[in-house]
Specification:
The strands form two sheets. An eight-stranded mixed sheet has the order 1-2-5-6-7-8-9-10. A two-stranded antiparallel sheet has the order 3-4. Helix 3 runs parallel beside helix 5. It is an alpha/beta fold and 269 residues long. The protein has eight helices and ten strands. It has one domain. Pfam families: DUF5131 (PF07505). This is Phage protein Gp37/Gp68.
């Protein structure tokens, strides 16, 4: 967990899972993999196993520890809907989001078909919670546009697109049922370039559809130097935020103790 994330569109990150596997061109220069593999083999480090996928159930109750409401990026170092994550663990993560409902949760996946399937079945109730934002990644037409369709048909109350890294002009696409769009270029060593007209195309479509538009970065090897202005200004638009009143300290502590006890019983069974 990171309280005070450097990601421009969130407050904190929460990782009840770690690690992932690559499935499309947007994964090529995965920042999470690069970070995690630095610590492979370091005894006791959270990423001692590098970027191998693993569940971290001891992190499930972390949203109950924070002393104020936050906007939380869920699994910044993984993908909740990875094919090797059991349904019941996904349900446990989502149940915590429903319990600690004074936070806003941003769930981002490239496994959009599984997201659609679960939001229409086991996670149907959670799909209707306005404080849980369900999103999918879009990097190009071939892989990204089908994901948008999956997300749109999932029937979620709040949906968003992370069009990052934007690798090509994605043309005209359907924004119906989409509540927010983030756009950004790739950063770091080997970053693939992003053209301004690709970004402007998306911004104009968002404007026409009344969808909030957030421009995260141009990216590149020196992303701070490139900045995040588009045609002379920044774009920091967000959808309307809905959340419940925060539970008091005693209630949160009681909930934590109860859930951690239940997890311990399951682990020892």
């Amino acid at each position: 967990m990171s309280d005070g994330s450097k990601i421009e569109w969130t407050d904190a990150t929460w990782n009840p899972m770690r690690g992932c596997t690559k499935i499309s061109p947007g994964c090529k220069h995965c920042y999470a993999e690069t970070f995690a593999e630095r610590f492979r083999g370091v005894p006791g480090h959270p990423y001692e196993q590098g970027f191998d996928l693993r569940l971290v159930p001891e992190k499930l109750t972390e949203p109950l520890k924070w002393s104020k409401p936050k906007m939380v990026f869920v699994n910044s170092m993984s993908d909740l809907f990875h094919e090797d994550v059991p349904d019941d663990y996904i349900e446990a993560v989502v149940e915590m989001m429903c319990t600690a409902n004074w936070h806003v949760y941003q769930v981002l996946t490239k496994r959009s078909q599984r997201l659609q399937d679960l939001l229409q079945t086991k996670l149907r109730a959670a799909a209707q919670q306005p404080h849980i934002w369900w999103g999918t990644s879009v990097e190009n037409r071939r892989h990204g546009l089908p994901r948008i369709d999956h997300l749109r048909h999932a029937g979620a109350a709040m949906t968003f697109l992370s069009i990052e890294p934007l690798l090509e002009d994605i043309g005209t696409f359907d924004l119906s049922g989409i509540d927010w769009v983030i756009v950004g270029g790739e950063s770091g060593a080997g970053a693939r370039p992003m053209r301004p007209d690709w970004v402007v195309n998306i911004r104009e479509q968002c404007s026409a559809a009344g969808v909030p538009f957030f421009f995260k970065q141009w990216g590149g090897v020196r992303k701070k130097l490139a900045g995040r202005e588009l045609e002379g200004r920044t774009y920091d638009e967000f959808p309307e935020i809905s959340r419940h009143a925060m539970a008091d300290t005693v209630t949160r502590k009681t909930l934590r103790s109860k859930i951690e006890h239940e997890l311990l019983e399951v682990a020892s069974a």
